[in-house]
Specification:
The protein is an alpha+beta fold and 403 residues long. It folds into two domains: 18-71 and 176-238 and 364-402, FAD/NAD(P)-binding domain (3-Layer(bba) Sandwich), CATH 3.50.50.60; 115-168 and 241-361, D-Amino Acid Oxidase, Chain A, domain 2 (2-Layer Sandwich). The chain is 28% helix and 25% strand. The chain has ten helices and 20 strands. The chain has helices at residues 24-29, 42-53, 87-106, 122-133, 178-188, 232-238, 281-291, 293-297, 330-341, 386-402; strands spanning 32-38, 58-61, 77-78, 111-112, 115-119, 141-144, 163-167, 171-172, 192-194, 199-203, 206-209, 212-221, 241-250, 262-264, 303-306, 312-315, 319-321, 351-361, 367-373, 376-381. The strands form three sheets. Strands 5, 6, 7, 13, 14, 15, 16, 17 and 18 form a nine-stranded mixed β-sheet that branches. Strands 1, 2, 9, 10, 11, 12, 19 and 20 form an eight-stranded mixed β-sheet that branches. It has a three-stranded antiparallel β-sheet with strand order 3-8-4. Helix 2 (42-53) runs parallel beside helix 5 and helix 3 (87-106) crosses helix 10 (386-402). The longest helix has 20 residues, at 87-106. The radius of gyration is 22 Å and the shape is elongated. The termini are close together.
Length: 403
């Protein structure tokens, strides 16, 4: 077993010497796995996928009947468009390749929907123009004139827009079902999954759960923004907090009406690394701080996409906090819908669902990798792009463990 490349922190005081409670013959009689993964969200399943490919025996445990966190409370978007050139982009493309291999086998409908970024203001249009000018090969993206916008998306308010950026590198799947389908498929490949099972103590070679005690060589905790149960001191020392967001979903649109691509507004541009080097970004931020102060306060940027049932998923806001008692804000919903309506007119804007989501957040860090105890890793995305990057992150970690 190689030396871990991730800096070790200290284990939780709740972590007793669990292995000391068992005699050698008791340890031997436990059901043994090479790897036990805590968490059946996309990050946990990505590790299970690559570990299974590497020939490891794998057990995945999750406290819920199925994934309920950030892995299902999102847009179902593989946001290759949002990545900066270099490692971010290469990792997103590696992960996309895994999605393309897995999706047809797991029964996940993965579609190349593309993305249309709309500009309402000159500062937004300037960033889009600079982004295109910076590309050596812009075959996957191009600027769209207002008169041409309706060729790419329905409902676009051409008279209120200066133009848009079309980028084909955005992929859509049903976020409400994909993770469960991948878990079911992994079980046909030999991965053991135990749902409604709480991981109580994680101390290889022993992991104690509410459904029994198991042996393992290595454990990986992929619990998303759940920091309080396992190794809380390690997460606290790392400085990671939580981002809470609000999202909505409409009633299904009239039969046959299709939005087609993902829709992004100008408020999205400062949030994505892909646009960060554009010279006009400073001017754009100044404009938005003056004209969109309420939106900036709540971290709002607008994304809209259509689901298979015809409904439109709309979001979202970003509140960075350690407070688990935050309440839903009607004002945030109003701002999100107002900004969408400024650029896109949906046939029916009746809201059927409203929800909050959470993900781990650590400024300046895309993914948090800790070693809180011997042979234990804790891994979580901290930039809100777990669906886009999880398979690449997991591939690297499994490679480190097995080589």
């Amino acid at each position: 077993m190689p030396v871990c490349k991730f800096a070790p922190l200290f284990a939780s005081s709740k972590q007793a010497k669990l292995s000391d409670e068992y005699a050698p013959d008791e340890l031997f009689s436990m059901k043994q796995f090479d790897l036990i993964i805590v968490g059946a969200g996309i990050m946990g399943l990505a590790h299970a996928y690559h570990a299974n490919r590497a020939g490891m025996s794998v057990l995945v445990v999750d406290r819920s009947k199925h994934a309920q966190g950030a892995s299902i409370r999102n847009f179902g978007m593989l946001a290759v468009i949002a990545q900066s050139e270099g490692k971010q982009m290469s990792d997103a493309l590696r992960a996309l390749n895994d999605w393309q291999q897995i999706a047809p086998k797991a029964g996940v409908d993965l579609q190349r929907s593309g993305c249309l970024v709309l500009a309402q203001h000159p500062e937004e249009q300037a960033v889009l123009e600079e982004y295109i000018a910076s590309k050596d090969n812009a075959s996957s993206c191009r600027l769209i004139k207002p008169s041409q916008l309706s060729q790419f998306a329905n409902g676009v308010r051409r008279d209120k827009l200066l133009g848009g950026l079309w980028n084909e590198n955005a992929w859509k799947f049903d976020q409400r079902q994909a993770v469960s389908k991948i878990a079911n498929w992994l079980q046909t490949k030999g991965v053991c999954c135990l749902f409604s099972t709480e991981a109580e103590l994680v101390e290889p070679p022993v992991v104690k759960t509410s459904n029994g005690t198991y042996g393992c060589n290595t454990a990986i905790v992929c619990a998303g923004d759940e920091f309080s149960t396992l190794f809380p001191e390690s997460f606290m020392a790392a400085g990671v907090t939580q981002c809470e967001l609000q999202m909505l979903r409409t009633h299904p649109q009239p039969t046959g009406w299709k939005l087609n691509p993902f829709i992004l507004g100008g408020l999205s541009l400062p949030r994505y690394a892909a646009f960060s080097e554009c010279p006009s970004m400073a001017d754009l931020k100044l404009m938005q701080e003056a004209a969109y102060a309420d939106y900036i306060k709540h971290g709002i940027h607008v994304i809209a996409c259509q689901e298979a049932d015809g409904s439109i998923t709309i979001g979202d806001s970003h509140t960075y906090t350690s407070d688990s008692q935050l309440h839903r804000s009607d004002e945030i919903d109003r701002l999100i819908l107002n900004e969408l309506n400024a650029s896109v007119a949906l046939p029916e804007l009746r809201i059927d669902q409203r929800w909050r989501g959470r993900y781990a957040h650590l400024p300046g860090t895309d993914v948090l990798k800790l070693q809180p105890a011997d042979n234990v890793w804790a891994v979580t995305m901290t930039n809100g792009q777990g669906m886009t990057h999880a398979f690449a992150v997991a591939e690297d970690i499994i490679r480190d463990i097995t080589h």
